[in-house]
Amino acid sequence: MKSNPKGYVSFVLHAHLPFVHHPESEDYLEEQWLFEAISETYIPLLLNFEKLVNEHVDFRITMSMTPPLLNMLDNKLLQDRYIKYLQKHIELAEKEIERNKDNKTVQNLSKYYFDRYSNDLHVFKDIYNCNIIQGFKHFQDIGVLEIITCGATHGYFPILYVNEKTVRAQITVGVKCYEKYFGRKPRGIWLPECGYVPEADKYLREFGIEYVITETHGILYANPTPVYGTFAPIVSPDGIVAFGRDMESSRQVWSSINGYPGDYNYREWYRDIGYDAPYDYIKPYIACNGARVPTGIKYYRITGKDCPKDYYNPVWAQDTINMQAGHFFDSRQRQISEAAKFTQNPPIVLCPYDAELYGHWWYEGPDWLYTLFKKIYYDKCDFDLITPSEYIEKYPQMQVSTPCRSSWGANGYSEVWLNQSNDYVHRHLHVAGDRMVELANLYPNETNDTSLERALNQCARELLLAQSSDWLFIITNGTMVDYAKKRIKDHIGRFTKLYYQIKNNKIDDDFVSKINEIDCIFPEIDYNIYK
Fold this sequence. Notes:
It contains 20 helices and ten strands. It is an alpha/beta fold. β1, α1 and β2 form a beta-alpha-beta unit.
């Protein structure tokens, strides 16, 4: 690390997926969200972290790993199904090598996918013993990665806080889940959907959270107005430090017009052999109902608008990675050199992204990070990589200001999670939240009746799962809407049925066992968090 840098860059990747677990059937395509993320994002990140460490490159990166994701990564059924997923893809890639024998360019790509999925299987089974959480924990333990937490099921605080006990429960379970897997207390939290409300600060402080990640306008419109904008964190009157997203660096990555992932040399996400290959040939490898879906094997690059798609060329992609890493490097150098003239402490440029952008949506993203981190370490520049915790330790004095109520997403003020397409959900969530608090107070510290305690704990699980902001997001976006609506209906239905069984003293133990097998998240949960 440089002795006296002019400023810092802090990458924060938000690793999150909703809890999808269907032991009752293998027909749910949604479980592949996890499998794709493991192969395309989490394993590539781990491999690149390992390369950087082995090459003695001193780097820093922060990741939130949400409780639903951690519970899925630790789930034996999903681990076994991921192995089957890889074996099926290895088999398909092997067939592709033969099918494309008359086209050497495509055949080489088929071999590439065969090698890649085979290596994923080796890494997952032989190196991490089917649990990659330990991989991320290792990099945190050696000091190059900071892992932070999130709300229990990504419940959206700016709406849930109508009943503050439901927000406290989201924070409580998020912190306890983190401690279970990482053996320490989390210092930071990625607020679900970056949704900030001042009412949550006292609960964050209660559980030892020091800082949050907010959207840009959460800082810019804080009260009083922050002197240094997003180039410095602020601290709320309740003592919570808030870091705001830097707009310029985000635009360079996220922009659909000129963002890095849209370069013509990068792999095209939407062109997949699941849609292109002959139907009878590809049918065993697509959806169980016969619908064509992506397989992950893609042979084309983005190429350009109104042009026939050209084949993907990994060498060209690497050249583009090098060029764009250089552009980002130069941009941060100019940005920090200019900002340092006006800030009391060295400025920080916070770069928060969905982790799945790196690898899943932007296939080359993990390699871009690897290239950029090496460049920052070896090339002459005036800035360093840093984690938010390290920045707080170095520069503990900061302006007191209350962040603005805010979120990320379209228009930045809850519109994605509360609109005409999904507003009907919230009254059910609020009623269930009130009922959960009622049950916790009616049956405090229930340990004598095992049946009652199991039912109360399952009520807590069903409420948390219903509160996932993912279902509201999916409904707004219009993708997999039927599945999202079904999940909300199922969880609220199960909660309500249990509520009346408990109130009427007629608990159906078989029903509790059945839904516990499906909704088995948070095995250590204690319903008393709602008291």
